[in-house]
Amino acid sequence: MTGLSKHYNSHDKYWAGGFLHDPATKSVFLHHRDSNTKFNPNKWAFFGGLNEGDETPNQCFVRELEEEIGLTVGEDQVLFLREYMNEDLNTYRIVFYVQSNISENKLTLGEGAGFAWVPLNKISNYDLTDKTQDDIEYFMRNGD
């Protein structure tokens, strides 16, 4: 979890989430939100959500992956990307990713309209949330 500050401790609630990354295919695995959600309906976004209890950001992201797509990962697999205050929602945002090449058919959609592997060179063809777009651009400039 190199690079993560303790700023999230000053916020009762924070959002932790992210994506899967397949470096071999230069693709990211994203979540297609459905029309029933309050925030960013029908947009492509990361998997994630608000923390519960005293869980760490890593634990929150790991839990969200399990709940949203049925993927179990170890905290040691979670790679920190960035953190910042999401002024739009007044929520601290912590973004992670996991290196993976898992097949979509091994995952189960827990919520939302769907999910997909998206080649980074085709990311502009997807209607991403603003924060997802910003974080993906950051990843393309600074990630591995």
Explain this structure.
This protein is of the alpha+beta class. The chain has helices at 57-69, 130-142; strands at residues 14-22, 27-32, 44-45, 47-50, 78-86, 91-99, 114-119. Strands 1, 2, 3, 4, 5, 6 and 7 form a seven-stranded mixed beta sheet that branches. Strand 5 and strand 6 (91-99) form a beta hairpin. The longest helix has 13 residues, at 57-69. The model has no long low-confidence stretch (mean pLDDT 92).
Write the layout of secondary structure elements.
Elements: E1 14-22, E2 27-32, E3 44-45, E4 47-50, H1 57-69, E5 78-86, E6 91-99, E7 114-119, H2 130-142
Parallel strand pairs: 1-6
Antiparallel strand pairs: 1-2, 1-4, 2-3, 2-7, 5-6
Number of strands: 7
The radius of gyration over CA amounts to 14 Å
Instruction: Label the overall shape.
Output: globular
Mean pLDDT: 92
Tally of helical segments? 2
- Structural class by SSE content: alpha+beta
State the helical fraction. 10-25%
Q: State the distance separating the first and last CA atoms.
A: 15 Å
- Along the chain, the helix and strand elements come as EEEEHEEEH
Low-pLDDT segments, ≥5 res: none
Strand content: 25-35%
* Oligomer designation: single chain
**How is the main sheet built?**
7 strands, mixed
What key attributes describe this structure?
about 140 residues
Q: Can you summarize this structure?
A:
By secondary structure, the chain is of the alpha+beta class. It is 18% helix and 31% strand.
